[in-house]
Amino acid sequence: MLYQQNHKYAALFIITSGLMFACMGACIKLLSNEVSNELIVFFRNLFGLLVLIPFLVKSGLSDLKTNRLRWHIMRSLMGLAAMYCFFYSIAHIPLSEAVLFNYTTPLFAPLIALFWLKEPLSRVLMLAIIVGFLGVSLLLQVDFSGFSWVGLIALASGFFAAIAMTVIRHLSSTEPTIRIVFYYGVVCTSVSTVPLFWINEWPTLSSLLILCAVGLFATLGQLSLTQGYAKASVAQVGPFIYSAVVFATLMGWFFWLEMPDMLSAVGIILVVAAGSIALTYGGRKQADVDKVSAG
Q1: Within a 13 Å sphere around the CA of 16, how many CA atoms are in the beta-carbon half?
Q2: DSSP readout, 95-144?
Q3: 276: which of 73, 125, 196, 239 fits an S-S bond (Cβ 3.0–4.6 Å)?
């Protein structure tokens, strides 16, 4: 009974994170006509770093020493690239599609692990990847008359995020979570400061409040996601993360009258189904590895 209760709470936390991330995307889309992408990325990182300060004070600065700085930098730059691509795509394509492309990470991750970490690719994962990218192809060229380059940029956000996640797996063998998050916040905030020197722009008070909301929703989403995975494995509740696509679709329809056509809807279903299979199967595989390691 306790196991089932934890499972339900975990699913609820994952769904809550999906809602928070969809709200973050809606705020970014709302800002896109008033504030540049560079400024949105900078404030997202700045507020994220500020939220991290209480945790740093609690854990102490001694936990921040590392011998793997170049890996932290690589992870941070890949995550930052994913953020730039994702936020840019939100401004130019329907919110649901931008969020969905960002959630193609489970399709890229096994391929990156295959070529980088030499991890074998099972038939189940291979089939899921093929189905997933079939759905992606429908979304990139839904009317077969013009290729969506913005969609390709959105897809790149999922690719860069998958590289970042692979590096995190590599780092997590020696680096605690607080250290990984700290270097990510510092590197991303520092690098995203550079474009501010030539865009010559500053947000209005109303825009600044929405930017604060972006940081708040992103932080709440991360906390909810962490709580969800702390109560159940990725294999058990991972697919619930695609609730973000559902929330994004509803928000896109309500605020901007965005509704996917038939081909887009089919593409969304294929990507969600394939991503869910990849998450579930990959989560079970990782759990098996953990059991062997523990034994």
Answers
A1: 17
A2: HHHHHHHHTTHHHHHHHHHHHHS-----HHHHHHHHHHHHHHHHHHTTTS
A3: 239
